[in-house]
Design brief:
Protein name: DUF3563 domain-containing protein
Low-confidence stretches: none
Helix content: over 70%
Organism: Pelomonas caseinilytica
Strand content: under 5%
Structural class: mainly alpha
Shape: flat
Oligomer: single chain
Order of helices and strands: HHH
Mean pLDDT: 85
């Protein structure tokens, strides 16, 4: 049963498409402590702010 379960998980991991939300959640969940989490949130907010001018006028 474990073999079949591992096989199905491997197939699902290969076929699954990672969305931007998934990547953001994984980036934040990889923080090792509170300070690292705050740094990662700051990095994300700077990245979003640099892209904000691209969305003006749409």
């Amino acid at each position: 049963m474990s073999f079949i379960h591992n096989l199905l998980q491997s197939i699902r991991a290969v076929l699954a498409v990672e969305t931007q939300n998934d990547a953001d959640e994984r980036f934040l969940s990889d923080a090792i402590d509170h300070a690292d989490l705050e740094r990662r949130i700051a990095v994300q907010s700077r990245a979003y702010m640099t892209m904000a001018p691209l969305n003006i006028g749409r």
